[in-house]
Amino acid sequence: MKLQQIIINDKKKDKILFSSNGFNSRKANLVLAFGERVFLDDILPYKKIKDLYPEAHIVICSTSGQISNTNLVENNIVATAINFEKTAIKVSEIDIFKNSDIHELGNIIERDFFDKDLKSILILSEGSFINGTELINELVKQTKGAIPIFGGLAGDEYKFEKTIVGLNSDASQGKIVAVGFYGNAIHFGFSSKGGWSDFGPEREVMLSEKNVLYKIGDRFALDLYKEYLGKYAEELPGSSLYFPLSMKENKNAEPIVRTILSIDEEKKSMTFAGNIPQGSFVRLMKGNLDKIIDASYSAALQIFSKQSAKPELVLLVSCVGRKIVLGNRIEEELEVVKEVFGEDTLVCGFYSYGEISPTLKKVACELHNQTMTIATIYEEL
C-alpha cells in the first residue's frame, strides 16, 4: 500500500502532508476527501482531486472537522490517496431522495458487493436526516453480521443544517457511499470507546418509538433526566452533550452510547441520534475530560496489541460531541492515538454525526455516538 495525504485550499497551493516512498499519483485507486460542508460547496474540489489522481475512485464527505495525524484541520480539505497493490475495491452510491427506502442500499450490498473475497465495507453516509440505526440494521441484515462494516455519518461543523457526500462527483445531499475491499492481502482492525462514566441505576425503557424516548421505568424520560442533571437542566438542550445515555438492548448486551438530539417539553420526551428500543436498558452517563481522552488511547491500544503487523493507515471517526466537550483539548485525543501507532502510520479521519464500527464482542457493526472509533488497515505483500 502506498499513501499520500494533502491539504487542498482554493486560495493557497495544495500542501503535501505525507507521501510514501514510491507513491505514484496515477496508480492511486481510492481517495478519501474530508472537509467542512460550506467549504466543499464553495470550492467544488472534485475536478481538482480527479486531476491529481486520475485513476482513483474519489469519495468526498462533509465533516465537523478533519483529522490529519495529531492535528485537527479546519477550513481546508484533507485528502488521503491510497494505492492498494494487491487489494481490489468496489464502490457504489445511492441517493436516498430517489430511493427513500433504505432497503435499496441493502439490495446493492447484496447484489454488487457480496463475494467470497469480501473482507470489509466502508460506509460514509449523509448525517442530517438518516435514521442511523435503520441504516445499520439493514447493513447487518444483508451481510448476515459476518462482514465488518466501518465508517460514519457526515458532519456539518456545529451548524446541523445539512450534510453532503459524493462518489466520483462533488458532494451533495442525500447520498450514501459504500466501498468494498477484497482479497487476502488486506487486514483490518476495529475498536470503539467512549470514556463516559455511568451514574444512577440501570432502568428499563417502558415506552419509546424508534429514536424517541418517552418513559424510563414509571417516569417520563425528560423529567427523570432533568432530575439527574440538577443545575445543568437549565442549559438544555446544549448541556445534553455532556450527559449521553448508555443503552443495552438486553441485560447481557454490550452497552452503546446514544446522544440526545432534542427534547420536547410538552411530551416530556427525548429524541436521540439512534434508536432506543422499548424493553432496552439505559443508564445516564457523564463526561470527564481525562477519561474521554484516555478512552481514545485505550481504543488504539486494544487494536495494536492484537495485530501481527503495524498498520499503514488508520481511519479515525470521532463524534462532534467529543469535539465540543473536549474544547481546546481536542487534539489530545489524536495525540494519544498517534502515540500508540507511531510516526510511520498515517492517520486520517473526521468528526462526525455518528460512528459506525463493529463492537468488541462481535463482527456485526453498530451505530455509536460520543465515541472514538478506529479502523486500522494494512496490506500484506
TrEMBL record:
<dbReference type="InterPro" id="IPR013702">
    <property type="entry name" value="FIST_domain_N"/>
</dbReference>
<dbReference type="Pfam" id="PF10442">
    <property type="entry name" value="FIST_C"/>
</dbReference>
<keyword id="KW-0418">Kinase</keyword>
<protein>
    <submittedName>
        <fullName>Histidine kinase</fullName>
    </submittedName>
</protein>
<dbReference type="InterPro" id="IPR019494">
    <property type="entry name" value="FIST_C"/>
</dbReference>
<dbReference type="GO" id="GO:0016301">
    <property type="term" value="F:kinase activity"/>
</dbReference>
<keyword id="KW-0808">Transferase</keyword>
<feature type="domain" description="FIST C-domain">
    <location>
        <begin position="221"/>
        <end position="359"/>
    </location>
</feature>
<feature type="domain" description="FIST">
    <location>
        <begin position="27"/>
        <end position="220"/>
    </location>
</feature>
<dbReference type="Pfam" id="PF08495">
    <property type="entry name" value="FIST"/>
</dbReference>
